[in-house]
Every structure is written in C-alpha cells, then in structure tokens.
Amino acid sequence: MELYELTIHELQAKLRAGETTAAEVTASVFRRIDAVEKDVRAYISLMRKSALAEAARAEEQLRKGEAGPLAGIPIALKDITCTKGYRTTCGSRVLDNFIPPYDATVVEKLRAAGAVFTGKTNMDEFAMGSSTETSHYGTTRNPWDLGRIPGGSSGGSAAAVAAGECIASLGSDTGGSIRQPAALCGVVGLKPTYGRVSRYGLIAFASSLDQIGPFTKDVEDCAIVMNVIAGYDPAESTSVPAEVPDYRGFLGRGVEGWTVGIPQEYFVAGIDPEVEAAVRRTITLLEGAGARCVEISLPHTRYCLAVYYIIAPAEACSNLARYDGVRFGFRAEGSRDLIDLYKKSRSAGFGAEVKRRIMLGTYALSSGYYDAYYKKASQVRALIKRDFDTAFASCDAILTPTTPTPAFKIGEKTDDPMQMYLSDIFTISANLAGIPGISVPCGFSAAGLPIGVQFLAGHFQEGRLIQIASAFEKLAPSEKRRPAL
Amino acid sequence: METTKISTDEVTYVANLARLIFAEEETERFASQLNAILRYMDTLQEVDTTGVEPMTHAIAQKNAFRTDAVGESLPVKTALANAPEARGNCFQVPKVIE
C-alpha cells in the first residue's frame, strides 16, 4: 500500500507514531501526480515547491507535538478558492493571470491546521457546468473511465481524490457541484448548510447558493475536514455565528430508531435502473440497521431546476459584472472607448456557457420580465424550502439518488444545455433550501462506474449527515475497488 | 410551432445590457438555446404563489454590521498589482469624456 492511497485518519496515525514523515507523504502524492495526471488532468496548477516547504513545517510541528489536525496532509483546492500569491483562474481565461492578494478563509484555516497544498484543481468556468467541459483549461477525465466526465463543476477536486492525486480536497457547490462529481467519481462529498463555512475568498457565482465543502475518501475524513473549515467568520456577513459541534463525535453512532424520508419525486422515469437499484439497496441496508424508511412527498421538486436556472444566473450576471477588464483580469486590445473596452474584454474573456448564463440572468432581471421570472422563482423557492421544513418535522434525514445516471461520456451533452442542466436535478433542491447534503458511494454499475446516494438534513444538521453516512459506510459491503489507472 | 420567448433583436438588446457582443450566427444560436431554456421555465407559471413571500436568503439573518473601526486595508500597490494597466495610484482606462 502506497502512502497516497491512505485516508487522513490513517496518515494521522502513521505520522504521529513516527512511521512516516510529512515529506514522505507529500512525495508519495506528487509521484502519483507525475504518474497519472497526464491521463486525469485534475489540476490547473500544481504547488509543488510550496508543498515541500509546508511539509517541512508540518514535520517540525509534529516533532514538537504542536501538530494541527491536518498536519502533513496533502490537500487540493478547487481553483475558485483564492490563494495569496498563487494564480487562481476559476477555470476562466478572464482570470488566467490573476494572483489573489489574500487567502480565502478556508485556506487560512487549513493552513493553520497544518495542511500541505498540492495545487489548484480544474473546474467548469466560474463553476458553471456539470462536467468540467466548460473549463478554459481542458476537460478533466473520470479516473474510473477516461472517456467519461468526472462531473462538475468541482470535477478536478473529485477526480484528484479518486485518483490518489491528493488525500482530500475542497470544492464548492451551488447546485450540486460537490455532490454530483463526488457520486460520479466514487468519493464522499459534503455541501454544508448555507452559512456554515465562510465564503470569504471564494470567487462568487450565485451568492445565495454557493457553499464550500470537502471531498474525501471516507466519512471519517469528511468529519475531520469539516471540523477545520466550519464556523463563523467576521469577514463574511452571511456566515452564521452558530456553534460548531465536533463532527467526529457523530461517527459510529448508528441509525437505530431513525426515520428516513424517501421522497417519491426523486424516483422518477429517466433515472438509470442501475442507479435506482443501488439506492434501493441502501434503503434495505439502513432498515436492517434499525432505521424506519418512509415514503414522503416533496411536492415542488419538479420546479427546482427551473427555479435554479433563474435565480443562479440572475445572481451570476450581477457577480460577473466585475470582470470588465479594469481592475484585474483579461483586457482586450484596441478598444475605442470605455464601453467598448468592457464589451470586447468580456466577450473575448468569457466562454459560451458563462455568456449563456449572463444572458439568461440579465434577461430574467430586465424590465418587464422581473416579476414573471425572478420574483416568481423566488416565491417557488420559498415553497421548496417549506416542503423540506415539513419533511424534517417528521424525518431525521432524507435519502435520494445523488445523480440520475452514472458518469456520461465526454462531449455527450455539450451541445444541449438543457440535457446538461438535468444532470443536477437531484442536488439543486438542497442549495435552494440552504440545507446540507452529502453524497456517499453506494455501488457500481455493471460497467464499473461509481454510483452515489445522497442524504439531506435540516439546517446545521451536518452531524446527522455524518452519522447516517458513517452508519451506511459500515453496513455497505466493503468494495475496496480503485480506479485502474 | 413552439412559441418564441426571445427574438434575435431581444438577444442583441440584452447583450448590450450585459456588455457582451455576439456575431450574427452566435446571436441566432443563443436565441434558440435561450428559447428552449425559457420554455422550460414556463412550468413555474402553473404554481399558485398567491401570498407567498419571495425567498431571498436560505438562512434568515439580520443585517450583519461590524464596528466602525479602522482595520487593515490592501496597500495601493497590492490593489493595483493585477490591473491590466495602471498609472500612479490609479487604474488606467481609455478616455471616457471627449
């Protein structure tokens, strides 16, 4: 067993016992990167040099017994997270040469916990996409089948964990961008409650929906990373000053006596039969462990996608107004005047999907259409949240498939935006309602592609998600499969 | 024939609002894709939202004020470091006023 194959908690034990060093762990991960990155293409930039220095610092802390919970653990960051002094592109030509003058709060927290940063991972441009195919830097490949997409938008972060090119990573989730790629790459991915993790230094897509969260190899690692990144941040006014529990305390508690809601609207025509079968097996296993699984209804589910594709683009078109070629980012040459400079810089800088969403958002907010689209969508959003409030009055958690199908082929959906949007159909509701969601591997298709099950819980109930996910992980027939790279 | 929600003229109008320029064939492609998406949005019209307050935040929070105290700010040189063009302590842009 190579060091890069281990989990955070396994490495923690080895590092503390003096069985290995932070330098050896980092070297193992970079050897793995050198071996498989040409196939997977998970990263936009590598941080090899600073990683070695961080590993040396972690080693020092471990020797002195002052090590943080992530001391010497190689972690990758989605390239939407600002890193002081290191290029942060957000997958866009617009930010190709952008060097942030500050670190995101999550980066500071991980650093303080002793993490070693391996690099910045690939993503759909400005996180707009479900496959990493809209990235200016090329498509990441799914480690389980290099002809398929890893999911998106945080596809690079998910693929890097699955391929052993880091031990854990961070992504961001606006409509499923952590959970969907986690499911398609066979790793654990958590989207926390809106306000649980600071968004300071996260490049904004849709500010009422965006959240940062971890990709890990197992549920215990997810709890470890959440312990580090969760919490109030005075620099981020939508982060919530609520107490953060020790998420490790929820591991191994079981689900005896729990009520788990199975929303009928998530088991609809169009769902792949292998996905449905794997998710149904999960239900049986949880019942065997003493949970009561009951059919529930979330009646406004069928409107989630339409609501999302009004609200997210509306917020995005405002957030992306800042890319005008003046203060930072791409500037086109040969402009006649200031307006011409804006237009030429934006038109040459943004890719097609980003333009499509800016157009959609601008249209939905424009005079004469605001009530029909944005206001209507915000009202239906309230009803979607109300559905969840009602469900959580009688359920401890909700169980759904994470995605309707396993990973699709590269190029399969790029010409049809509506088909691409439908791949997020089961994950969007959590962002609209602001609730946390986790995707956990629950099996493989006959073709050997990973399948994920999603658990949802009420606001600030990440602990419950970790509890049910860890219970399921224990029950599931242990499939220690790894991608054959 | 399916209804047209947005014409190519409207695409050009919205593009101007969004400070984007499209070539003619791009305008047509966007019009057709946006029409497909907007037709899908029509499903929302079947929902009765009478008296429903629009939801703008996932978590209800009051205004988050900080104390009015002088803190650390980015030095001018750092703030200008990513500018495509800068002169002195300013971002430089093409002439705005004739």
Key attributes of the depicted protein:
heterodimer; A: 485 residues; alpha/beta; Amidase signature (AS) enzymes; eleven-stranded mixed beta sheet; 11 strands; globular; B: 98 residues; mainly alpha; Histone, subunit A; two-stranded antiparallel sheet; 2 strands; 34% helix; 4% strand
How would you characterize the overall build of this protein?
The complex is a heterodimer of chains A (485) and B (98). Chain A has helices spanning 8-16, 22-40, 48-64, 105-112, 155-162, 179-185, 219-229, 273-288, 304-319, 338-349, 352-365, 371-392, 417-422, 428-433, 462-475, and strands at residues 43-46, 74-78, 116-121, 168-173, 188-191, 211-216, 259-263, 292-296, 397-401, 437-444, 450-456. Chain A has 485 residues and is α/β, with parallel strands linked by helices. Among the domains of chain A are: 3-254, Amidase signature (AS) enzymes (Alpha-Beta Complex); 302-377, no CATH class. An 11-stranded mixed sheet of chain A has the order 1-3-2-4-6-5-10-11-9-7-8, sandwiched between helices. In chain A, helix 2 packs antiparallel against helix 3 (48-64). Chain A is globular. The two termini of chain A are 15 Å apart. Chain B is mainly α and 98 residues long. Chain B has a domain at 8-46: Glu-tRNAGln amidotransferase C subunit, N-terminal domain (Histone, subunit A, Orthogonal Bundle), CATH 1.10.20. In chain B, 34% of the residues lie in helices and 4% in strands. Chain B has helices at residues 8-17, 24-41, 76-80; strands spanning 86-87, 90-91. Chain B has a two-stranded antiparallel ribbon. The longest helix of chain B is centred in the first third of the chain and has 18 residues, at 24-41. Chain B is flat, with a radius of gyration of 23 Å. The model of chain B has no long low-confidence stretch (mean pLDDT 91).
